[in-house]
Fold this protein.
Amino acid sequence: MTVSICVSCKLPFVKTTRSRMTECLPCWKQAQGYDLTKSDIAHQSLADEFNSTLEAQKTMSKTITQLLSEIQTLKSHNQTPTSSTSLSPEFLKSLIMLCHPDKHSNSTLSTEVTKQLLAMRKK
Ligand SMILES: [Zn+2]
């Protein structure tokens, strides 16, 4: 069994894997000129419900993916750089000299980086 999207009503419908049906049964019946029974109408409203559930599921998994990547970003920001311990004081000094806001027309980035480098030196 697979879920396909009906070419006529754009709603999902379940078909057997081998079936070549491109539209749901009620749509097919309508196209053939058959009258729709109560169960056909029930089928359509269920398909409608199913569709909104699918949409909600898509939105939810998108949100989950976003949240996971945000968590990942937060985690990487939180990590104390493991390499900081291996930075020699001389190297740190060079970095501070290179990043100094005076040399970068007081850019926000260089101010921020210098601040962090100075904090690392204190450790
Ligand atoms: Zn249909």
Summary: Residues 6, 8-9, 11, 23-24, 26-27 surround zinc ion (CB under 6 Å). The mean pLDDT is 87. The first helix runs from residue 25 to 31.
